[in-house]
């Protein structure tokens, strides 16, 4: 079985929270592409497309802007999840 490939990043500036989310996903066996915090929504979407991920995990502040950026790029098939 292939591990799910995820991109983890935050539009906001809470580096500790998004790093913890990345570790949790990695510990479950997911392949994590980590962007860190303070990333523009368009950059998150572009990285997700370029890295061919199945889903994006972002902070609550970034969920809607990232979904909109994915829609503009024609990549609505990439799932967006809010980091817990």
Automatic annotation (TrEMBL):
InterPro entries attached to this UniProt entry: Cobalamin-bd_sf (IPR036724)
Gene3D superfamilies: Cobalamin-binding domain (3.40.50.280)
SUPFAM superfamilies: Cobalamin (vitamin B12)-binding domain
Any GO MF annotation of the entry: metal ion binding
Protein name as annotated: Uncharacterized protein
Lineage: Bacteria, Bacillati, Actinomycetota, Actinomycetes, Propionibacteriales
């Amino acid at each position: 079985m292939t591990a799910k490939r995820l991109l983890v990043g935050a539009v906001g500036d809470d580096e500790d929270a998004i790093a913890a989310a990345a570790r949790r996903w990695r510990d479950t066996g997911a392949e994590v592409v980590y962007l860190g915090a303070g990333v523009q929504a368009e950059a998150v979407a572009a990285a997700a497309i370029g890295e061919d991920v199945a889903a994006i995990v972002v902070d609550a502040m970034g969920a809607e802007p990232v979904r909109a950026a994915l829609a503009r790029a024609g990549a609505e098939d990439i799932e967006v999840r809010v980091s817990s």
